[in-house]
Amino acid sequence: MPVHEISNLPVTPRAPAATDRSFASLAQWMRRNLFQDITSTLITVFVGLILLWQIPPALDWLVFSAVFSGEGRQACTADAACWIPIFEYFNVFVYGPYPAEQEWRVNVAFLLGLLAFPLLFSRRMPRSLVLAYAALLPVALWLLLKGGGFLEVMPSTVFGGLMLTFFLGTIAMCLSLPVSVLLALGRQSKLPIIRWICVIYIEFVRAVPLLTFLFMASLMLQIFLPGGMEIDRLLRILAVMIFVSAAYKAEILRGAIQALPKGQFEASYAMGCGYWKTIFFIIMPQALRNSVPALINNFIGLFKETTLVMIVGLLELVGTIRAVFQYLEWIGLDVEGLIVVSFTFFVICFSIAQYGAHLERGIEASRH
Fold first, then answer.
1. Any idea where the ABC transmembrane type-1 domain is (predicted)?
2. pLDDT in tens, 305-328
3. Domain range list for the chain
């Protein structure tokens, strides 16, 4: 019973603790984390000297002496970064060969993807709305970018650059999780046929490299289809990424389910709940909470694995940048392109990791 109902007195909410941002608190933090003993002090000093030695010339090469504009390769200098091709081909890096008059569709798709982050981080947003948005996002991205209905249908050859990386990574992340739930439940099924089908599928997928499946989907699958039948190559690649990633997630979820006490099932059955109610209202919520770190790690790995589609002829961000720097004029400036790729993937993967940390903090707070 709430306190105010017992005492009949209004309850004044406790003021949040003030954060001490003084110099003394900073010194205390440094003493506790950087200079706690002789070993940590030596490591701190050593790392600090390396940073002081490397950061100034790196900043000078990247920013202060770098060339950001000019006419062709002759405007670049040998001892500084040359960002001219990055700005010159910026639209190619972002949109690939997507038609210029249809780029608004890519912009709307990016906006829908970015909108997912405030929804995911918000604690006031109903979870049902967030789940519905995550379920509908792949459909919206496919209709926007691939086309259909009142939108012009785009061939797979116009997909490239950051747009293709975003398209593959987002849809694969959203759809691989529900598939993995079904696989994890199927592997624990009491029906031998379902259980062995799931076991064989998971073990086979985990034993074969993703690149092999990409080659099979891109080159060999079409050979075994009936004459005149053709499956869109982008759809084949996307299906491979979804079902391969789902096999790894299924093992993560299976371990989380097995870690739950057996009494959870028995108590649920004793209260009259059937199998599906027990799974989806009692078991899976706990299993998903316990497997958040491993799932987030898998999501990050999946997003980085989108670069492998370059091998089968789809030029995502890495492939597009490599293609641009193969031009005779820009040969030898690969470092600038790799820096752009690294920074882009860092921002995306760091954002996913921060969402995972946000989920873990919420889970820890709900346990107290």
1. 162-351
2. 999 998 888 888 998 998 888 888
3. 3-64, 84-366
